């Protein structure tokens, strides 16, 4: 199934370099405390993005990783920044390292390419992967830390490897780009770089990444590189982002070897239970909420369903690995929901969207950010809505006003989401896999319309989760939207789309009749000031269904709990049936907008 996306951005290097310098100056200008520490981590991530883009540009030019002066200069700066984060963290956010004047000046004076392709580090954006956790992981390595040579696997390794090196007190740190098929990665090094990495015949090696993912092939590529030159496994240490094994696409060889490898996971849960109170999420939130009255309640991985008091028979399906980490905290007489919103600049943008949506009356009240988590008020007396019990005209009006508000107030650049051709390719692939080639072939009739539709598409920060269980019903009958901030910036291929995508989602998820669907479109047009195109809604209908079918098929594969596996499989079958119905109709706008 096609589901995931790999977001890259083409950025002019000079503005990117200046933005990094500003982030550094802002971090060093703050008073001591968690906010300054958060700014330091954000500056480190900004510098890591620059380093990744520059290194990948050199790789593209040379066909392999090499010892380039520009990369060496940026790595020196990253090591200083990682040391600053370490000093702040270990001092309880009180100490600030000296200003990296020489390293920054060298980077600002370095000859860099005019433009670079940068990649969003999924762990920092979506999965509550904290650079500080790698300080703890590195502390578990054996003695003689200065003889450890650190290899970060790009992209995220440009930040994580310097953190490990800072913890060990070594400058022997490089990043390498795994290439090739996603499930069969390899590493390509220039002879001089290979010699530099292997210069100490008695050294130990630390391979650093956020995985393992579906295949663990990036770690496998690092192992192949080192063991292929005679390094015994006993001198290789893996620092992954979690303690689990590679996923179902891992090679039999790696699956067999994994349990015997030396692994030191950098888990967020270790921070939750840190022996130092200032390193725990509950303490981070204290400045916003006051003293906690009870321990954090973990709502992640579908646990929010029980917290809402739903009986098991009414639990909606979930994808356990695509949910953000979230917690419930009771403090100062109130209840608060803490959801991971990302490290770095993305979290600030999400807070701003949360504030606008709340002021407009669509979402719960946001309180602020605390080192990667967005804090909002938990609505105790709200329940999940039952569509059949809601007045349909009021429901359609609420959905329309919400989507119209997003369309008017949250414009997005075209590059922030998948193109219509990418969505079509996803739909064609997923439909062919599940329905078979013959039943998927009617989608071919849609492709000629893509260029014309693309010119008329107006990308916005769409909601992308219009499912019934993503809403709350207040006692007075009002509907509030939850998780309304970041599904258009998730680890999937959809991203920001025309508001027509959410209109299709509302139509499907709330089982709107043709008349209700047309009323919804009219309300969105009135609120947004621009009418969503019926032909675009028609085009996106099979794309939406094919994406949801793939999402819940993969959720079923990923679920360990038998009940959640069954719920996800049932949801996938429902979307499959809807998609089959659409594709069996005549592929014209009317047939797609009003499928049988």
Name some characteristics of this structure.
596 residues; alpha/beta; Phosphorylase Kinase, domain 1; Aminoglycoside 3'-phosphotransferase, Chain: A, domain 2; five-stranded parallel sheet; five-stranded antiparallel sheet; 16 strands; 11% strand; globular; disordered C terminus
Descriptive notes:
The C terminus is likely disordered. The protein folds into 3 domains: 263 residues, no CATH class; 87 residues, Phosphorylase Kinase, domain 1 (2-Layer Sandwich), CATH 3.30.200; 207 residues, Aminoglycoside phosphotransferase (APH), C-terminal lobe (Aminoglycoside 3'-phosphotransferase, Chain: A, domain 2). It is built from 24 helices and 16 strands. It is an alpha/beta fold. β6, α10 and β7 form a beta-alpha-beta unit. The strands form 5 sheets. It has a 5-stranded parallel beta sheet with strand order 4-3-5-6-7, with helices on both faces. The radius of gyration is 25 Å and the shape is globular. The longest helix has 29 residues.
Q: How do the strands of the widest beta sheet line up side by side?
A: 4-3-5-6-7
In round numbers, the mean pLDDT is 93
Q: In what range is the share of β-strand residues?
A: 5-15%
Number of domains: 3
Separation of the first and last Cα atoms:
25 Å
Low-confidence stretches: 588-596
CA-based shape: globular
Identify the quaternary structure here.
single chain
Number of helices, where a helix is a run of at least 4 consecutive DSSP H or I residues: 24
Radius of gyration: 25 Å
**Which structural category fits the helices and strands?**
alpha/beta
Query: Got a strand count?
Result: 16
